[in-house]
Automatic annotation (TrEMBL):
One of its GO terms (molecular function) is DNA binding. Gene3D superfamilies: Nucleic acid-binding proteins, P-loop containing nucleotide triphosphate hydrolases. One of its GO terms (biological process) is DNA repair. Signal peptide: none annotated. Its EC number is 5.6.2.4. It comes from Cohnella phaseoli. Belongs to the helicase family. RecG subfamily. Transmembrane segments: none annotated. This is ATP-dependent DNA helicase RecG. It catalyses: Couples ATP hydrolysis with the unwinding of duplex DNA by translocating in the 3'-5' direction; ATP + H2O = ADP + phosphate + H(+). Residues 453-612 form the Helicase C-terminal domain.
Length: 683
């Protein structure tokens, strides 16, 4: 193998000594390879524009002849240089700030190229950069890369260094993609593409260079996921669940409702995986209210019947309690024991529970992240289900996994993720989707109203209450301040109690003890409270089918997916449900979200719009998502490339040749290098 550019120290570059190398180091660049792959994050456009086509305020480059004597004004320590330039048939006023030294060079009739911001009304250009064609005009007509620089490193110096590195070492940039793929997609060679990213001669070259490198980035990313997956598949070291289909049928037949076609289908997919000797790693996505819990219940039932234990991990205590209660009820007559483990379980109960798990006396445990503490062990953990998975970090999931031998893993999410994003974030998973909601569900009617209409909102609450239904009233969200959230909830509870004295109004917030929360929820679920005033603690999962009215105060403070989740707390039974969003009409992008909410209640459409409004990074939250950061690829625009890359990587890793043929040695080396950086071992 030839020597890698990543092993060549920066000081091998002409003119780079220890000091320059140190400055580069500070930017995370420690080898010639790093420098060459330090991509620009945008380009400055120095291509000459036709003045008739530019818009006011644009940054443009124009070329013309000097048409007046320059005048220089000084004020304070600053100066302003003004001169007229004839550009085609337009007389333009060029203004430089603090460039007095240029005055001597502005000779009448001399050609000049000006780059800067255009003021249409005054026909004036505030010049950021100028060049004289008779002196070469190196930038004119080009796209100049803009790098992230800092410290003592200037933009110009960085451009110079990278240019130098490309001249000296550019020819040694190795190809990494197999020829069959570069041929298939008509991609340029790696060394040309990298050079093209740094100095796109013209837009088309630049685009082709970018296309190649984006593909490579996404392909290598997918290759890691797929290789990881292929290795698991080959190892066949998972639990083989012996599942008796008749037993499953009996269990399903005893449910109080008939499963939807979608539910039956995903249950089949899951049970199929569980019977196989490889480890199941499946994502179940389904919109709020699509009935994921019962799917999880069937899978948990199957693992227990096969002689193992199941764990269900959820993001909030309220949800853990709800699931423990409903699963407990569902499994009661089968003699299956369900336990609850959260942060607020007393130490004694906790010790008992852990002992029962270890001895195998407990079949199923439902809990929050308290489940993944170090001292929790199982006798034989067969299945791990995580609900509303996007709230868990990748590491937390893998810790829980390691508690069993190699338990099957089912991950459920109610934030339906556009398929391509699912591929990206969960590329190592199989995906099952619940496409239909249970029969008889009516779409939730959603309205967005101003605060002034509060009286009518109260009237609505009275109406639903007298029809026997219940209401959620969600308080404004104060970012970063749980204390203010709580205060808001308390205030709103007082106001509503005064405005609706004839109704019973409950209160729920994060500062209440676990027991208080549980009691409040139980009372609401039992229909004893008419209205539940709550902070967003009930955002996910809460299931009270008799509740038909969801009111969100200051809805413009909430994100789109969050609003959809909140709305999903109603419309879970056969009654017509409503969602009222009280929002400030002056909040412009708040209104954009209200529009999305009133226009659709399809979770896939909502998350698509959310993604559009917020971008993928924020959409998933940063830390918890396991969302990869790409250097060039943009998930919104490069969807199709991502899908292509995934298919290519999957085909390659499932071929025998990939693992043995010397032709793929460099890709295997790449995988070996990358696996050293993973936080969990490859097996
Ligand atoms: P989510 O997918 O949001 O977690 P749940 O599993 O909480 O949804 O289900 C929502 C409600 O629908 C629950 O009350 C549940 O009992 C009910 N449900 C689930 N499946 C069906 C079905 N096939 N027919 C009727 N009701 C169902
Ligand atoms: Mg749920």
């Amino acid at each position: 193998m030839s020597i890698s550019l990543f092993q060549i120290p920066l000081t091998k570059l002409q003119g780079v000594g220890p000091r320059k190398a140190g400055e580069l180091h500070a930017l995370g660049i420690s080898s010639v390879g790093d420098l060459i792959e330090y991509y620009p994050f945008r380009y400055e456009d120095y291509r000459i524009r036709d003045l008739r086509e530019v818009k006011d305020g644009e940054r443009i480059t124009i070329q013309g002849k000097i048409a007046s004597m320059p005048s220089l004004q000084r004020f304070g320590g600053k100066s302003r240089l003004i001169c007229r330039v004839m550009v085609d048939a337009t007389l333009v006023t060029a203004v430089w700030f603090n460039r007095g030294f240029l005055k001597e060079q502005l000779a009448l009739e001399r050609e000049i190229t000006l780059t800067g911001k255009w003021d249409q009304r005054r026909r004036q250009l505030t010049v950021a950069d100028s060049e004289f064609p008779d002196r070469g005009g190196a930038k004119t007509g080009t796209l100049q890369p803009v790098y992230s620089v800092g410290g003592d490193m200037t933009q110009a110096a960085m451009r110079g260094l990278i240019e130098k590195a490309l001249i000296q070492f550019g020819d040694y940039i190795p190809e990494i993609l197999p020829t069959e793929l570069t041929d298939k997609h008509g991609l340029m060679a790696r060394k040309d593409a990298i050079a093209g990213i740094h100095r796109p001669e013209n837009t088309r070259d630049g685009q082709e260079a970018r296309r190649r490198m984006v593909y490579e980035e996404l392909f290598l990313f997918q290759l890691k996921l797929q290789a990881y997956r292929a290795m698991h598949a080959r190892k066949s070291d998972g639990l083989v669940h012996t599942v008796d289909n008749d037993e499953i049928r009996t269990f399903v037949g005893a449910l109080p409702f008939e499963l939807t076609g979608s539910q039956k289908q995903v249950i089949n997919e899951i049970l199929h995986d569980m019977k196989q000797p490889y480890v199941m790693n499946r994502l179940l996505q389904g919109d709020v209210g699509s009935g994921k819990t019962v799917v999880a219940a069937v899978a948990l039932y199957a693992t227990v019947r096969a002689g193992h234990q199941g764990a269900l991990m959820v993001p909030t205590e309220i949800l853990a309690e709800q699931h423990a209660r409903s699963l407990g009820k569902m499994f009661e007559s089968y003699g299956i024991q369900v336990g609850l483990l959260t942060g607020s379980v007393t130490e004694r109960k906790r010790r008992d529970l852990i002992a029962s798990l270890q001895m195998g006396l407990l079949d199923i445990v439902v809990g929050t992240h308290a489940l993944i503490q170090e001292d929790v062990f199982f006798r034989s953990l067969g299945l791990v289900v995580t609900d509303e998975q996007h709230r868990f970090g990748v590491n937390q999931r893998s810790i829980l996994r390691r508690k069993g031998m190699n338990p099957d893993v089912l991950t459920m999410t109610a934030t339906p993720i556009p398929r391509t994003l699912a591929i990206t974030v969960f590329g190592d998973m199989d995906v099952s989707t619940l496409r239909e909601r249970p029969k008889g569900r009516k779409p939730i009617k959603t309205y967005s109203v101003k605060h002034e209409l509060m009286d009518r909102v109260l009237g609505f609450i009275r109406k639903e209450t007298s029809a026997g239904r219940q209401t959620f009233f969600i308080c404004p969200l104060i970012e970063e301040s749980e204390k203010l959230d709580v205060q808001n909830a308390i205030d709103l509870h007082i106001q509503l109690s005064q405005a609706l004295p004839e109704l019973t109004i409950g209160l729920l917030h994060g500062r209440m003890t676990a027991t208080e929360k549980e009691e409040t929820m139980a009372e609401f679920a039992a229909g004893k409270t008419h209205v539940l005033v709550s902070t967003t603690v009930i955002e996910v999962g809460v299931d009270v089918p008799n509740a038909t009215l969801m009111i969100v105060m200051d809805a413009d403070r909430f994100g789109l997916s969050q609003l959809h989740q909140l709305r999903g707390r109603v419309g879970r039974g056969e009654h017509q449900s409503y969602c009222i969003l009280i929002a400030d009409p002056k909040s412009e992008n708040g209104q954009e979200r209200m529009r999305a909410m009133t226009e659709t209640d399809d979770g896939f459409e909502i998350s698509r719009r959310d993604l559009e409004i917020r971008g993928p990074g924020e959409f998933f939250g940063t830390k918890q998502s396991g969302m990869p950061e790409f250097r060039l690829a943009n998930l919104l625009n490069d969807f199709e490339v991502l899908e292509q890359a995934r298919d290519d990587a999957a085909a390659l890793t499932s071929s025998e040749a990939f693992w043995s043929s010397p032709g793929y040695g460099s890709l295997r080396d790449y995988l070996a290098r990358e696996s050293q950086h993973r936080d969990e071992p490859l097996d």
